[in-house]
Amino acid sequence: MILGIDLGTSMVKAVIFSDEGRCLAVASRRSSPQALGGGRIEQDFEEIVTAVSDVVREVCGAPGHVPDAIGITGQSDGLWLLDENGRGVRPAVSWLDDRGNPYLQGWIDSGAFEAVFRRNANAIFPGSHAPLMAALRDGDPDALTRAHTASYLKDGILQRLTGARVTDASDASLPFLDIARRDYDPEILDILGLSEMRRLLAPVMPAPGRSFALNAEGAALTGLPEGVPVHAGPFDLVACPMGAGLREVGDGLIIIGTTLACEVLTDHVDTRGAPVGMTLCMPQDGRWVRSMPATVGTATLDWVLDLVGASHTDVEGLLAQSPPGANGVTALPFFSATGERAPFVDVRARGQLAGLSTATSRADLVRAVCESVAYAARHCIEAAGLTGRVLVCGGGSNSQTWSQMVADVLQRPLHIAPRPEVGARGAAIAAMDAVGLAYDADLWTRAESIIEPNRDAAQHYEDGFAVYLDTVEAARGLWNR
């Protein structure tokens, strides 16, 4: 058996898979990002350590449930400052935190933002290491002085379980990595004025990564015997394509999660064009995912559901009550306080609802927002270079109506990735690769079903997408006046 651990932004999960990829058990605990006001969002690292202990003990508590390997994935970015023993020196700054906004805007204005993209095909965003390091250098310099590692969450958990201080090339891809050599680029650190932060960066594991033995502390935390191999990496934006079965160059994945991540597998690094999106190292050399991780995913739906006094269980019914086009209501889904990062970068991006009247229903508002996210998915996946088939996963894909809407907007079949827990599945696959365990990749990643696009809806959504693009361009001019 293989254990996959997924450290999400709001949920920590552990999943036991059989050697054929069947899900045998799942356990989860909520984590609690704390909104401190003023756009500041932080997390308690020890709370997540405890959650990992709880979920692993739950799924591995049955006799014989000792995994052959453990794979860890989860949220990336944010700033998890740890001491030499893997303890937090301060609460972690979440990737949702916006205190890096003015620093990113300064780099955009000075040309540093574009200069970094021209070196590694990655567009910095406010919740990544560089802006947050700059913000803490001004706001909490003592924490940086006391820290031994500017870690990522899953790497911090690996250190607590095994003592290893390393990171994966997928996490490190943005912002400081030379993604062809898979090592840090001192020129990028210099461009951003952060050369002194080099001491905080953990060594990058070479492809395809390696495992580390569960130590005494890890055994005490998990209830598992010492020596079980543990592998941390890649993070969720790369683990999900692996778990979904993205293997052919040009194939794409849409993750309808907190982030709307639209990704395409590529065999080259392209630093031309507009400086936007991410180019993330896959575990094998010579492969990357070109990722457009928009901030407009299920968090946008959560916002409108809260606005109209509804819950997730109401979504299918509300979508059925409003026709395609939402009775003339349109939306831009950019409601994140950090603005937008794909398929364009603008820290001032803001959402809008238009076409409202006294006849507008709450169902119209929900449908308009869901349609806008579907349009954003097409905008992003096309910008990422899609040429092949399209897979979909994430919590939003559990809505049949919403998934059908995405297929209709794309006018492409949607292959539903194997459920549950695509990210944990990818972590398990990466762990098997690192340890050298044989498995049937087709069996592990076989699509659950395929949603065919409704050809009768093609022209309606083609027109709607054109209006969406025009509205985005008009709004960008307003945001920056």
UniProtKB/TrEMBL annotation:
rRNA processing found in the keyword field: no
Membrane-spanning residues: none
Record has Protease as a keyword: no
A Pfam family assignment: FGGY_N
Keywords carried by this UniProt record: Kinase, Transferase
InterPro entries registered for this protein in UniProt: ATPase_NBD, Carb_kinase_FGGY, FGGY_C, FGGY_Carb_Kinase, FGGY_N
Domain Carbohydrate kinase FGGY N-terminal, chain residue ranges per copy: 1-241
A GO MF label: kinase activity
Superkingdom to which the source organism belongs: Bacteria
GO biological process terms held by the UniProt record: carbohydrate metabolic process
Domain Carbohydrate kinase FGGY C-terminal: from-to ranges: 284-432
PANTHER family xref list: L-XYLULOSE_3-KETO-L-GULONATE KINASE, SUGAR KINASE
Family: Belongs to the FGGY kinase family.
Listed name of the protein: Carbohydrate kinase
Native organism taxonomy: Bacteria, Pseudomonadati, Pseudomonadota, Alphaproteobacteria, Rhodobacterales
